[in-house]
Write a sequence for this structure.
């Protein structure tokens, strides 16, 4: 069974940094684009960032562009999200999701269990 | 304000049929991008319900169906059951936003 396990969430001060990780298993990791999707408490889903299977192309929502960096280590089947200059509005559960294809742009399945990021002083 | 527009809530009695709309524009659904639907129960991660407009993943009951036409899409649920009470989200891509993924605001389905 395909598994995605996020880690790295927690409490961070405004302006601080945090690095999220997502360990993937039971599928050919490098063959699939991956994304991060977040959900603020009581709110809807917001796509944050994506990376192609090879890692050669990355995409960002305007709300995080220039502050967040997505990357992957295909040798370790792990996806990362480096979050810098965080703001209160970045507080959310962050989900790691597997894209159906190698190139970003299809459906998300499955989703990890999520990791909670809280930005507060 | 979400790029894709969904009604905040819908409701129906057990056994009835309900539908949830997802309205986009010429830069997303109207540009030919597929729409996908997810189901989310409180406190859990979303789950893929419909992909590529109308396809059901293995294990999803055929009571759930999807369609897309032009700049809009819809999710239909027939034979409504109490266990269908959840939040539903549509998702696609938008060519005007550098190919950004976009979600609808979500629809809360209440089974009366």
């Amino acid at each position: 069974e395909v598994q995605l396990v996020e880690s790295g969430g927690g409490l961070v001060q405004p302006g601080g940094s945090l690095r999220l990780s997502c360990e993937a298993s039971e599928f050919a990791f490098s063959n699939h684009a991956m994304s991060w999707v977040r959900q603020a408490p009581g709110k809807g889903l917001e796509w944050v960032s994506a990376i192609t299977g090879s890692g050669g192309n990355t995409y960002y929502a305007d709300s995080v562009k220039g502050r967040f960096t997505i990357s992957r280590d295909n040798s370790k089947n792990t996806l990362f999200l480096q979050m810098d200059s965080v703001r209160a509005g970045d507080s959310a559960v962050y989900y790691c999701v597997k894209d159906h294809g190698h190139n970003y742009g299809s459906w998300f399945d499955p989703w990890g269990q999520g990791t909670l990021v809280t930005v507060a002083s | 304000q979400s790029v894709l527009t969904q009604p905040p809530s819908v409701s129906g009695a057990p056994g009835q049929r309900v539908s949830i709309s997802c309205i986009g524009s010429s830069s997303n659904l109207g540009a030919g991008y597929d729409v996908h639907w997810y189901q989310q129960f409180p406190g859990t991660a979303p789950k893929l319900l419909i992909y590529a407009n109308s396809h059901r993943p293995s294990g999803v009951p055929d009571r759930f169906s999807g369609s897309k036409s032009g700049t809009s899409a819809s999710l239909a649920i027939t034979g409504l059951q109490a266990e269908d009470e959840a939040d539903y989200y549509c998702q696609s891509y938008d060519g005007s936003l550098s190919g950004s993924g976009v979600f609808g605001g979500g629809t809360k389905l209440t089974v009366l």
Remarks:
- Chain B touches chain A at residues 2, 34, 36, 38, 45-48, 51-52, 57, 89, 91, 93, 97-106 (CB under 8 Å).
- The CA atoms of residues 92 and 102 of chain B lie 5 Å apart.
- The mean pLDDT of chain B is 95.
- DSSP finds no helices and nine strands in chain B.
